[in-house]
Amino acid sequence: MDFTPLRISTVKPAKNLTFDLYIFYKDHYLIYVNRGEHLSEEKYQKLKTQKVAKFFITESDEINYQHFLDNLLNETLSNPDQSIDAKVNLIEGATSSAIERMQSQPESENAFKMTESAARSLRLMIKSNPESLKKIFGKKAQKDEEIIKHSLNVCALAVRFGELLKCTDRELDDLGTAALIHDIGLTKLAPDTKELFTKPKRNYSAEDKKNYFLHCKDAISILQNKSYINKNIIELVINHEEVLSGMGPHKKKKLTKLEEILSLVNNYDKRTVTLQSTPSETLKDMMIDELGNYNLELLNHFKKVLHSEGLLD
Asked: Is the pTM of this model over 0.85?
């Protein structure tokens, strides 16, 4: 029997489950809550105290879980009595589960649809609660989850930036989905090459750069010929490292509006992560280093957005 992990924050207490819920204990998957029953508040708090971060479901229950999660997201985001923190925690759990699922099962249609749903929910939350963006960026990545946190950050900031640039809802949904999976090609890299993710690009050797850029090309083999993934999302993913100077892996010198947004936001967040610099320091360096790589108007607009969203405080 195959099992799929999910974040504990995506299963709320006192809500009847439409699937069997498992925990992993001493090398065995054990049923923790049966289908049709609910997770008690006492059990939920106990697991949080014990720092249990994940539940598991069987592969056959993935559709049931996705319907459950979609309903929970809709209920939570539309409820004015729910705190911003509660909404952010749920969305973070949903997006992190989706990213992790795509990393482990990149060929899965269910995993991709989970990612689409998570990206749309994140976009809608930020649109209705702009202050949630600052809360997302205020949280540090847990150990060994830098790529997941980076993907979440890029998605959140890219869809907000795109919204302020008057992108359509369809464009924003494509942008958000692509942002969550833009580093999917890293799953194909050798462990020592994958470790380059945490190394500042300014310190890359020519060989490092060549090897790291393979993750953009590997994304093609993962995503192409999937009828359920539209071409716009695929193009965004494989071109997320491209810049107008033609120094990206595919040497493109012309980017679509969405491609330039994703590349810029990815560049900004990865610099902050790898250099461990403050947002203000990162922005200052980018305004110098990236002239010629992005339109000056877009860079200036990005700077204004970071200020207006309180991300430089």
From this structure: yes
